[in-house]
Amino acid sequence: MTRANLLIAIAIAVISSSIWAFVNQPEQEPRWPNRIQGFSFSPFRAWQSAIDHVLPTEEEIDEDLALLAKRTHAVRTYTQEGSLAEIPRLARKYGLNVTLGAWLTNDLERNEVEIATAIRVAQENYQNVVRIIIGNEALLRGDLTPEQLIAYLDRVQEAVEIPVSTAEPWHIWMKYPELGEHVDYIATHMLPYWEGIEMAQSIDYIVKHMNMLKQKFPAKEVIIGEVGWPSNGRTRQLAVASPANEAIFLRRFLAKAEQEKYTYYVMEAFDQPWKQGSEGSVGAYWGVYDVNREPKFPFTEPIVKIPEWRTLAGISAIIAIITFAFLLIDSKTLRTRGRSFLATIAFGASTGAVWIVYTYTRQYLNPTTILIGILMVIGMIGVVVVLLAEAHEWAEATWLSQWRRPFTPQHLDDDQLPMVCVQVPAYNEPPEMMIETLNALAKLDYPRYEVLVIDNNTKDPAIWQPVEEHCLKLGPKFRFFHVAPLAGFKAGALNFALEKTAPEAELLAVIDSDYIVTPDWLKDMAPQFAKPSLAIAQAPQDYRDDEENLFKAMCYAEYKGFFYIGMLTRNERNAIIQHGTMTMVRKSVLQEVGGWAEWCITEDAELGLKIFERGYEATYISKSYGKGLMPDTFVDFKKQRFRWAYGAVQILRRHAKALLFGRQTALTRGQRYHFVAGWIPWLADSLNMFFTVAALGWSTGMVYFPLQIDPPLVILSIMPLTLFVFKVGKMIYLYRTRVGATAGQTLASALAGLSLSHTISQAIILGFFTKDIPFFRTPKRARRHALFQALQSAREEGLIMAALWLAATCVVVSQGSETADLLVWIMVLLVQSIPYLAAVIMSMVSGFSKTEEKIISSITAPPPVVEEVKSNA
User: Fold this and answer.
1) Segment 517-529, tens digit of pLDDT
2) CA-CA 20 to 30 A from 653: which of 20, 261, 394, 760?
3) By the 8 A CB rule, do 826 and 811 touch?
4) Membrane-spanning residues where (predicted)?
5) Under CATH, to which class is 25-284 assigned?
6) Residue 139: is its pLDDT beyond 50?
7) Does residue 597 surpass a pLDDT of 90?
8) Which residues fall within 8 angstroms of residue 873, CB to CB, at 6 or more apart?
9) For residue 650, what are the contacts with CB-CB under 8 A and spacing of at least 6?
10) What is the model's pTM?
11) Are strands 507-510 and 264-266 parallel, antiparallel or unpaired?
């Protein structure tokens, strides 16, 4: 790493560490008392559960009471089941008072057992049972009616001389004031988190409602049966669950409780993982101590939001510096601004990744959460890789100081120019279109060339014979071959043409049958081959029918990004994608590598890679020398992109050793990077399919099992949103600055590109599990689909879009959208639907045969001149 790069890394590391330090400034809060008044006490261990009736032993209960005796005067229990009925007896030897609880449900027989046991235990332990609570939130849950609960209260009051009450949130006491006539005191729960109260306002909230209850029941003592804040779990409206918030809340509350002379029980002594089954993930995290009986926060020292922040900042910096160094490999022409941009992205991505892993591992892990965590890490790595690849292209397309491999026009005298064989493969093409192509070739300003037209497998003589006749009219330079049968699709036709090429031809030039070339094409490009190491000269694909309708205008806008952004940056490392039209290749090299691959449906890109593997060079000239025709319908547009994506996987599978490991190849690191990085977004699209299915499944679980399945953690939901926003931002910036696109062109490109996501996903997945998908020819001048037929071409996308919208709607209806995690998850579902919506829009646009001319012109208008990067020339 150079000195400048090291200084940039250090500067960003200092800024990053400063942000960590600023966010984690110590906060001084009131000290925790030596002993508090009481704890809510559920002595379950990690492997135990009240739901499954797996109870702690007396020895385990005794250990917990011995620990709590140092911190509290009393404990509150909830049930008299099994060993839990022994808590008063065990607490007595530690001098702990007990508020005895009886758990009531809609199981009336079980209630009778609870009541009887509570009466017995209270009578046996009258020395330290100071209160009894019959039922815990039984009215809130709807398990009992007020009349049923009152009957239980009256029975227990008659049986014991200890104060009796029930425990409910404050609003239940206000709703059923008649309860006050049947209790000896008011036991209320003050849990501001569940009511979505911001932590900073929570203490005032408690004081307000305690005063309200005192006014409502002036003759009764009001105690707080539960008060607390969770250290983890979902956010409810303004209430954020975190260790720091739990610590701050409790330390502030205890100071206020001492001032107000409250009687209270802190909810709760120990974390209870089993409560996730009844209260969602947050139910596990209300303890002052974790499940291993370790304090979760400091009792007297200043509170820091993330105590381990220095370690996390260090790990983030190490990962970021390694990532930054990797991004700067072979980036000597990148300006300081571009390097600073990459450093910022590297530090941001590493910090986010470290924070996500840290946050996720703070929860209690079980087989389900471990599996989700593994999938999360895999997905996170994928997101970061795509993000870094996109950022690298952004930087190199924007902040190069100079082009390392600029196109430099060469001039050779006519007698020095090599002979060129122009090859035009065709299958079932409209004869009038091909005649236009041939007429343009006849006007080439080049001294020595021939044109070979290879029509393979067209059955109707009325289609190919007019072309044959026209070749005869154009003279001996033009030779026509009709071959049937001929295997190998386009590659087979080109290999056939290679055999028929004039022996003196040194260069082969290939165009599609719909291309009209400019006269200077060969004269500009052929001189580049004076360099012996050059094997390929490539010009952009371009199109001439973009003004026919809105659909084609949108497709045209989408094509531009690859040819005027991606290919330029790839050319810097001699790593262009060869595409099968407007390309020239040295004949001897083509023969050396064995010709065109008939096993691959993207034989052009595969040929380019084979040539690079032999150590040859290619050059890209970003000037249009020929224009063809675009797909006429959305279904054809999809099939074309399916072929490209499927072919990419074929190439990746065949050349994996060379691309991934650099074995037995002359490929440079830069070439290997660009070929793999160029396909990463397509691979990400395939994973996106699985994410969509998982999102629909998770949302279904949220709707049908709201207590058991929470929304995904915000840290999980934020990843796809971040990547989506970054990619959109990159596309808008580069299209406006490098392509010179208008706002309309940028929007059109975005819609067209997004509309292909599902198709690419299918192609990538099939590419890894199949070997031979038939070659699909993109038809030209095809009959336009009617609107209904066009919509049919996006029926899968439309159904998935509708499913995502329905899922978002059901989540809103069943759980609302007030909390941050719910709101973010709903946003994820809606953003996830955008590519599918784009496909539906494109299918509708392709169904219209006519479009307002002014709309088309806003998209097809020539872009403004964009300032070029200075070259070495």
Assistant:
1) 999 999 999 999 9
2) 394
3) yes
4) 309-329, 341-358, 370-389, 713-735, 798-816, 822-845
5) alpha beta
6) yes
7) yes
8) 406, 408
9) 599, 600, 601, 602, 606, 767, 771
10) 0.83
11) unpaired
**Extents of the domains making up the chain:** 3-22+307-398, 25-284, 421-647, 680-860
In this structure, are residues 419 and 452 in contact, taking their beta carbons and an 8 Å threshold? no
- Residues 325-339: tens digit of each pLDDT: 888 888 888 899 999
C-alpha R_g of the chain:
36
pLDDT tens-digit profile of 651-706? Answer: 999 999 999 988 889 999 999 999 998 888 888 888 888 889 999 999 999 898 88
Task: Say how many CA atoms lie within 13 Å of 500 toward its Cβ.
Answer: 22
Question: Would 25-284 and 421-647 be classified into the same CATH topology?
Answer: no
Please tell me the distance from the alpha carbon of residue 784 to that of residue 776, in angstroms, as a whole number: 18
Mean per-residue pLDDT for 3-29?
Answer: 89
Report the C-alpha gap between 65 and 293 in whole angstroms. Answer: 11
Q: CA torsion angle for 724, 670, 602, 424 (degrees, to 10)? A: 120
Tokens describing residue 860? 């097809």
Integer CA distances (angstroms), 311 to 316, 351, 363, in order? 9, 12, 19
- Residue 196, Ramachandran bin (φ over 0: left; ψ between -120 and 50: alpha; else beta): left
| φ and ψ of 135, to 5 deg | 90, 135
The owner of tokens 């090299």 is 589
Q: What fold, for 421-647?
A: Spore Coat Polysaccharide Biosynthesis Protein SpsA; Chain A (3.90.550)
- Phi/psi region, residue 489 (left: phi>0; alpha: psi -120 to 50; beta: rest), is left
Nearest to 280 by CA among 359, 177, 363: 363
Q: Count other C-beta atoms under 10 Å from residue 136's C-beta.
A: 22
